[in-house]
Every structure is written in C-alpha cells, then in structure tokens.
Amino acid sequence: MLVDMNAYVGHWPFRKLNYNTCESLLGRMNEFGVDISVISNLQGIFYQNPQSANEELHEMLQSNSLFEDRFIPFAVLNPVYAGWEHDFGVCSEEMDMKGIRLYPRYHHYEITNPSCIELVKSARDKGMPVAISLRMSDSRATSWMDLERGNEWSLKDVLPLIKEVPDARYLILNVVGNPFLDDEETEFFKKTNIVMDTSGRGLRRFAELLKRYGKDKFAFGTHSPILDYVTGALRIESLRNSEAGEETKELLRHGNAEKMLDL
C-alpha cells in the first residue's frame, strides 16, 4: 500500500503541468500503485481569496464517486486574509477537509504571525494536520514572476511555529536546504508529531536522516504534478536492508501516513 502525502490538482501560473486534474492524477496513482493521495488545489496559493480554490476542489471531489476513497483534501488558508476563521469553519465542518496547508512566503506573512498561530491552534483543536512546503518549485529555474531566488526554507525555518504550538500535527513537505538540526533542536523535533515527505531533494542522505530522527518521522510523498511521480518512492525502495528493513519501509509507504491522518 502507498499513501502519497503531498500532491496537487490545479494550475501553476508559471509553467504547464500534466496530470493536474483529479481524473488524470487518479490514472497516475493507478499506474504506480498509489492507493490514496492527500491533495490540495494549487490555485489557492495564488487566488486573492484561497477559499475559492477550496470550493473548486470540493466540487471536483463531489463530481465522481471514485474520488471519495482515493483522495484526502487539505484546505489552503491564508490567516492574514479577512474572514479566514469563517473559511476554516466551512472547510472543516461543511467540506470535510482533513487538514490545512500554509504558504507564508506566497501570502506574505511571518510564520509566527499571531493569526497564523491562531489558525494552527484551531487546526490542532480539530485534529487536522498542518502542512508546510519548504519550497514549491526549484528557484534555480524559477519564473521572474515567482518568488525571488533565495526564498527556499530549510527545516530550521519552520521550528519557530512548531515551538509556538508544539502539540499540533505537522507535515513538512518537499524538504530542501539543510535538513539537519543541532542536537537540542533534534531532541525537540523528535518529541513532536511531525512527518516529512520523501519528495524533496534535501532527503538525498535519507538513511542518515532516518537514523537521526527516527523511522516514524517520514512518509512517502511526490509533490506531484510539479515534481516527477517516482523519486519519492525510489528513496524508500532504494534503502538497503541494513538501512531500513521491510517493517520500516511499510511505515514509510503508508503506516506513518495512516497514523498522521487517522486512517
């Protein structure tokens, strides 16, 4: 079984994407043996009001009964946009969104903004994971209209929010930069409910990261359709038996995701 913790539908304004609809993503999942995907609408990053993108995603998922058991929707919310509290309530109670995704760099707020902390606490109280992507696209080939180069985060950059709300559940996605924390930060990290997905290039030393943070801190993810669909899985399957036995690989393929998502 495979659970993809990091996938999208929708359009990216700076280049054409393939497999970016529910129908085409489902076909991709079937081709590569992925059972369930956590998805969000990319357009929520760029709409003035991201709730419109959440409504679009909800309509997509309601359009075909095949989607119900294969997709887990996460809402894109902007805590500095007026009315986010109402939108959060609609997403969690009416649309049955299972988590939220935050984009501080795109929505122009600090990660410790009081409204951001309030939103994360609201998600915590509802039992909804909070997903943060360390980057969306490779800044080395970015469009002049996208974020300026040098705006990628490392794992250390999200710690201030986690320290403000240490009892929430977090997904750290598309890990780039330096994924290694100092000893004190590592001990804090290991005590929190955090899972990183396997899509990002920062996990090139995956076996070493598993040893440092623990087998419960990672889960399969693709960052599809922006990244390719197989690298995240290859990082798991290429681990030697001395680095990760079959029990650990099963946790990475789906076990840790099921625990995070209450499946």
Describe the structure concisely for a colleague:
The protein has 263 residues and is an alpha/beta fold. It has helices spanning 22-32, 51-62, 84-94, 104-107, 114-126, 159-164, 183-191, 206-213, 231-237, 246-261; strands spanning 3-9, 36-41, 71-76, 99-102, 130-133, 169-173, 193-197, 218-219.
What is the topological layout?
Layout lengths: L2 E7 L12 H11 L3 E6 L9 H12 L8 E6 L7 H11 L4 E4 L1 H4 L6 H13 L3 E4 L25 H6 L4 E5 L9 H9 L1 E5 L8 H8 L4 E2 L11 H7 L8 H16 L2
Parallel strand pairs: 1-2, 2-3, 3-4, 4-5, 5-6, 6-7, 7-8
Describe the protein in words.
InterPro entries: Metal_Hydrolase (IPR032466). The protein is an alpha/beta fold and 263 residues long. It has a single domain (3-261), classed as TIM Barrel. The chain has helices spanning 22-32, 51-62, 84-94, 104-107, 114-126, 159-164, 183-191, 206-213, 231-237, 246-261; strands at 3-9, 36-41, 71-76, 99-102, 130-133, 169-173, 193-197, 218-219. An eight-stranded parallel beta sheet has the order 1-2-3-4-5-6-7-8, sandwiched between helices. β6, α7 (183-191) and β7 (193-197) form a beta-alpha-beta unit.
Largest sheet: 8 strands, parallel
Helix content: 25-40%
Low-confidence stretches: none
Provide the number of structural domains.
Answer: 1
What's the CATH H-level homologous superfamily? Metal-dependent hydrolases
CATH class: Alpha Beta
Query: How would you spell out the order of helices and strands?
Result: EHEHEHEHHEHEHEHEHH
Oligomer: single chain
**Helix-and-strand structural type:** alpha/beta
InterPro entries: Metal_Hydrolase (IPR032466)
